[in-house]
From TrEMBL:
Top-level taxon in the UniProt lineage: Eukaryota
Name recorded for this polypeptide: Enoyl-[acyl-carrier-protein] reductase, mitochondrial
Organism for this UniProt entry: Drosophila navojoa (Fruit fly)
Residue ranges of every copy of the Enoyl reductase (ER) domain listed in the record: 36-352
A Gene Ontology cellular-component term: mitochondrion
Length: 358
């Protein structure tokens, strides 16, 4: 009788009563290499109360920032003991009595960073979650909050781009690079990608062209290319850099007058060096971008909501796919972490922990 008298928003939480939900999580108590400090542990979770939500994690990617956080090399420092991971897609199991925006069965992704996502189950605050359509694929949903959002914001916030304009980027086969190509295709923007040469270069170029790249050149080819001198394609007003060093310098040379280079990574671990000529005579500008900062400063901004809506719509329509990836069972996290550490930018493969195999 009691259950019938409660408001509907409270009923789902009762479904959890006396259910023993045991979460398997990858935890660490000190910084170090993931293979050394991560431990697979089990914890019994309490029922969600008030504005809390119990989530079953379906998939969670391994990002470079996740590895750097575990190593202690990232600006964000967790409190120990900490659960690793920053992104996920999950399914709501049940909710607390005061939850109004989510219900059991809804797919969710994180709105906040540092929640700890390499786990099979977790209890989060309602305000830290965003409900999304279950029509969005698991790999796409699991990776939506970092790489696609980074690409989206860099294309929107630094230069006003119109259809027919051109963007140039190095690291064009990275997860962000693949996202840039797809967004440029959706918005009618020319996307020129620079990659390092490799034995399977023709296959890589074919892949990036299929994602929307207008042209793909190796670092050697871009030095001698006349791609912007023929008049068939506008000289880029925006350059995106995740490599640094000589690669960034070379890319910046191709910017148009008063063009902007946005740096969001430094895979070469070399500083961004400015070519004096373009800096003076073209008055080009150099900016930096960190998605975590943008998300914190725009947590409830309309622009953020619009961004997620547009990305989800593209994914539902099959116009935006997840980066090249491999699904890995949680129990094989050491192999996946080692592979992520050995990643040198050639394969462009992202590893995603598949919690459905637990």
């Amino acid at each position: 009788m009691l259950r019938r008298t409660l408001p509907s928003c409270a009923r789902p939480s009762l479904l959890c009563r006396h259910m023993s939900v045991v979460a398997k999580s990858l935890k660490y108590t000190q910084h170090g290499e993931p293979q050394d400090v991560l431990k697979l542990v089990e914890d019994k979770l309490s029922d969600p109360t008030d504005k809390q939500v119990l989530v079953q994690i379906l998939a969670a990617p391994i990002n470079p920032a996740d590895i750097n956080t575990i190593q202690g090399k990232y600006p964000v420092k967790p409190k120990f003991p900490a659960i690793a991971g920053n992104e996920f897609v999950g399914k709501v199991v049940c909710v607390g009595e005061q939850v109004t925006s989510l219900q059991p069965g809804t797919h969710v992704v994180p709105l906040a960073s540092g929640l700890g996502t390499w786990t099979t189950h977790a209890v989060y605050k309602e305000e830290h979650l965003l409900g999304i359509s279950n029509k969005v694929g698991l790999a796409e949903a699991a990776t939506i909050t970092v790489n696609p959002c980074t690409a989206y914001r860099m294309l929107k916030d630094f230069v006003k781009l119109s259809p027919g304009d051109t963007v140039i980027q190095n690291g064009a086969n990275s997860a962000v690079g693949q996202a840039v190509h797809q967004l440029c295709r959706a918005w009618g923007i020319n996307s020129v990608g620079i990659v390092r040469n490799r034995p399977e270069i023709d296959e890589l170029k074919k892949l990036l062209h299929s994602l929307g790249a207008t042209a793909v050149l190796t670092e050697e080819e871009i030095r001698t290319s006349d791609i912007f001198k023929t008049g068939k394609m506008k000289r880029p007003q925006l350059a995106l850099n995740c490599v640094g060093g000589k690669s960034a310098t070379e890319v910046s040379r191709h910017l148009n007058d008063r063009g902007v280079m946005v740096t969001y990574g430094g895979m070469s671990r070399e500083p961004v060096t400015v070519a004096t000529g373009p800096l003076i005579f073209k008055d080009i500008a150099f900016r930096g971008f960190w998605m975590t900062r943008w998300s914190k400063e725009n947590y409830n901004a309309p622009e953020r909501k619009q961004m997620f809506q547009e990305l989800c719509k593209l994914m539902e329509d099959g116009k935006f796919v997840a980066p090249t990836h491999e699904m890995v069972p949680l129990e094989k996290f050491k192999d996946a972490a080692a592979a992520a550490l050995n990643f040198k930018g050639f394969t462009g493969k992202k590893f995603i922990l598949d919690m459905s195999k637990c």
